[in-house]
Amino acid sequence: MQSAFVLAIAMTFTVSTVKAQELEEIIVTATKKEESLQDVSVSVSVIDGDLIEKQAIQSLKDLSAYVPNFSVTENAISTIVTMRGISIGANQSFEQSVGLFVDGVHLPKGRQFRTGLFDVDRVEVLRGPQGTLFGKNTLTGALNVITAKPVIGDDDISGKVSIAASDEDSGTEIEGHLNIPLSDAFAVRLAWQDRDNDGTINNLYNGKTGPTADETMLRFSASYQPNDDLRVDFKHTDGEHIRTGSTSSPWTFDQAMPPTPTSGLGFAVMGIFYPGYQAAVGTGNQYTDENLGFGTTQVLGNNPL
Predict the structure, then answer these.
(1) Which segments of the chain does DSSP mark as H helices, in order?
(2) What angle do CA 295, 58, 244 make, to 5 degrees?
(3) Fewest Cβ atoms closer than 10 Å to its Cβ: which of 61, 73, 78, 132?
């Protein structure tokens, strides 16, 4: 009896050790087809959805802390993406040298890199020129964001909701998804993210705090899979981003230039914008409304100088 008991323990330990040594295969679509990460010929880093949720990665700027040779910096009007030390100028009209693709759709402008990461299956970061497969604006690399698809075949409705709040800046964040199977071959999925931040810096000019942010993102997905050889996916994403105040270091002074026919692109203390001025000093009353990645800027208030 004693010998049999010891043998059983040894066999159990051996099986557990073998299972612990097994590595889960990572499937990516970096070359426009599904293949193992070990078989991909390009330099690629993969961040899966579980890590994004666990580490509270909310944007591509947050993601850059987990990817080598990749960084995202933001100011009041521009987003600068750098891959292997190469980037473009800080101009919101420029197209990036790093291509951004969300579910295969190209988002060329820098502002679109501010899109929130929610209900994501994985993010693939490809380093090096990718023009052969992804086209132009991929001189230094490409980001391939794959969002979660509806789960087909489940019997019950499933979902998840997370709520976070902060006393420091009166910020709140609500994020979640809902998966609804309608048949054995058809399912829909609704995902959302809402973030509200009142800021921590007191503006002595108008008595308000800033910079503030109010961002809402919604995504509707539908999938139809009649057999193992065919699957049709439909996704629609809509978002609104309203930010007041600068996200960069404040300037103490900058000369206001004469008016020009074009809208001003300058920013200064708390990110004020004045139409027709290239640069100005002011307070945090900038209003930015983004629709489908294209930003428009309006000004409320007068120049305090």
Answers:
(1) 2-21, 49-54, 60-63, 131-134
(2) 40
(3) 132
Residues facing 72 on adjacent strands: 81
Contact 187, 222 (CB under 8 A): yes
Distance of alpha carbon 282 from alpha carbon 252, whole angstroms: 10
Beta strands 79-83 and 158-166, pairing class = unpaired
Q: Distance of CA 135 to CAs 99, 121, 138, 157, 247, Å? A: 9, 24, 7, 39, 32
Is the peptide bond preceding residue 304 cis, with omega within 30 degrees of 0? no
What is the CATH superfamily name and number for domain 35-147? TonB-dependent receptor, plug domain (2.170.130.10)
**Residue 291, number of CB atoms within 10 A of its CB:** 11
With tokens 């612990």, the residue in question is: 20
Contact 192, 176 (CB under 8 A): yes
DSSP state of 56: T
pTM equals 0.66
**What residues does each domain of the chain span?**
35-147, 158-244, 245-305
Please, are residues 297 and 77 in contact by the beta-carbon 8 Å criterion?
yes
